[in-house]
Design a protein that fits this description.
single chain; alpha+beta; Nucleotidyltransferase, domain 5; 15 strands; binds zinc ion
């Protein structure tokens, strides 16, 4: 498990310019390494070192060897990712795959440092640059010092150093702790989470985390933004930049609050989410209307997912993903798929007559999909789903064999989580 702390060390102008120069050479080293790998269709560090090390050393004479190695490692990772993405894209759009931009770095890049190139003793931080090693004193807040203390197994793994948009040097210290220290909580409940726009998160236990505030704030910013864009003066543009920051911070804060509440809930062992990775594809295909697309485009589902995952990891809660298809159209009691049963935020089954909030229905379906999958794959430790208040969960527990949804069908509907018919 990794965590990071960002600090802003106080540096002299000379030291800052040394970092800027290091960044330039680092970017050059990275670009040379990634070009070499792609041209030789290789992802081997050893090969790269053999072929390109001497030339990089010539091109970037004052870049410390440790940093050349870091740039090389980052380049290998970037090229590997790039290959995976390209192979995926090739299957669908071969022409687009040909035009895909190669991994490259600009002069103003963020450099990765490892334990050889950065050291932290007490509050003294030293790290190498093109010039000489910079020595500086940093202050890590008391809160973090307690949280990532070496006695709990936390170790400094490295850092990312760069210059932010405001021209300040930041140091992103990365701490690592071996995973086995955190115990997994295996005897809690399995809870399904349905994400949406009208309710950010709804749990299968029936708890809603509303999006009313978020929608109000987003609507406000959308309005102000469109007015400023129309004006188009220089001061309007400045205001636009600052607004984008405000909105981002609001969303981040909200996602932090929700994920923290969820991660700190007792007696939960697994959170099940629907896999929304196909959302972007859907948007491109134009399967949703204009207002829907607008909401989706500034919907921060992946950010919430990320925050929830890392917070749960710390508390020993697993986060799992299941297929998103039909979760909002299926009745969670009799498992019949019927689009017409949903009316606004109510789901009233036309077959068995059960009625509940549509998002809770979807959340229960998400949870049951996970349980079904886990049983099929033979995972032993799957608890029986707890009965949510008022809505007895039948289906699989009664018959032992759950009805499964038709798999392999092409996705023609919006994924669940998005309110339908509105
Ligand atoms: Zn039903």
């Amino acid at each position: 498990m990794r965590r990071s702390i960002t600090v802003f060390p106080k540096l002299t102008d000379k030291e800052v310019s040394a970092i800027v120069e290091t960044g330039k050479q680092y970017a050059r080293a990275f670009n040379m390494a990634s070009e070499c790998l792609i041209n030789n269709s290789s992802t081997s560090k050893r090969f790269l070192h053999k072929v390109q090390y001497g030339r990089i050393k010539e091109e970037c004479p004052s870049l410390p060897t440790g940093l050349i190695q870091c740039a090389r490692d980052v380049a290998v990772e970037a090229v590997k990712n790039w290959n995976v993405k390209r192979t995926k894209l090739k299957q669908k759009h071969p022409k687009k795959a040909e035009r895909m931009k190669r991994p490259s770095m600009k002069d103003k890049c963020t450099m990765r440092y490892d334990v050889r190139t950065i050291t932290l003793r007490g509050s003294q931080l030293t790290f190498s640059t093109c010039d000489k090693r910079i020595k500086t004193i940093i202050t890590i807040p008391e809160f973090f010092r307690g949280r990532y203390s070496p006695s709990d197994g936390w170790k400094l793994k490295g850092a990312n150093i760069g210059i932010n948009r405001k021209g300040r040097v930041f140091v992103n210290l990365i701490y690592e702790c071996p995973d086995h220290i955190i115990e997994e909580n295996n005897d809690g409940k399995i809870v399904g989470l349905d994400r949406g726009i009208y309710n950010i998160v709804t749990t299968s236990e029936g708890v809603h985390y509303g999006a009313k505030d978020a929608r109000r704030v987003k609507r406000k910013y959308n309005h102000v933004r469109s007015e400023l864009q129309e004006k188009g003066t220089r001061s309007a543009k400045r205001r636009l930049v600052s607004i984008s920051g405000c909105e981002k911070r609001f969303v981040h804060d909200q996602n932090h609050c929700i994920s923290k509440k969820l991660a700190n809930t007792d007696d939960v062992s697994v959170y099940v989410l629907e896999d929304l990775s196909s959302m972007n594809m859907l948007r491109l295909k134009g399967k949703s209307n204009k207002t829907m697309r607008k909401w989706i485009s500034n919907w921060s589902y992946s950010d919430l997912e990320f925050k929830l995952t890392y917070k749960c990891q710390k508390n020993g809660i697993k986060v799992e993903f299941v297929d998103a298809r039909y979760t909002s159209r299926k009745c969670s009691v009799c498992k019949t798929i019927d689009k017409a049963s949903r009316n606004g935020n109510r789901y009233t089954c036309r077959h068995c007559g059960s009625s509940m909030h549509a998002d809770v229905n979807a959340a229960i379906n998400i949870r049951d999909n996970y349980i079904t999958r886990a049983q099929k794959s033979g995972q032993a430790a799957v608890n029986q789903p707890g009965e949510p208040s008022g809505h007895p969960v039948s289906g699989w527990s009664a018959t032992g064999k759950p009805e499964t949804e038709p798999l392999g069908k092409t996705l023609t509907s919006k994924p669940s989580g998005l309110p339908e018919g509105r």
